Amino acid sequence: MVLLSSLPDKYVGKPIEIDCVDIEIYRFEDNQYPIFKGPGVIRGDKAGRLSYKVYNQIQLNQDIVTYFKQIGEQNDPKKTNLRLCAKGYDGMKWSG
Fold first, then answer.
1. What is the pLDDT along the chain (96 residues), one digit of tens a residue?
2. Which of 32, 83, 89, 92 supports an S-S bond with 26, CB 3.0-4.6 Å?
């Protein structure tokens, strides 16, 4: 069991790397199905910036192509922002 009070000391203001058995990436306003899914890693730096890498297991489809086009053509966060749901190898769940 992990106590919430132990998390800030472990993760805040420190470089972190969380290996994940599964990361699912969803469009910000869409809960139906992930556009990217697979194992990967979540990284954070001392300033609190997070990044992630997903070894995508979903075959390239029209949703993914449309998303990449929107990133290149539009600056609309409602269309390009993503949500992340992940499960670490230790069983801890992460979202953001």
1. 566 677 777 778 889 999 999 999 998 777 778 989 999 999 999 888 889 999 999 998 887 888 788 777 777 776 678 899 999 999 999 998
2. 83
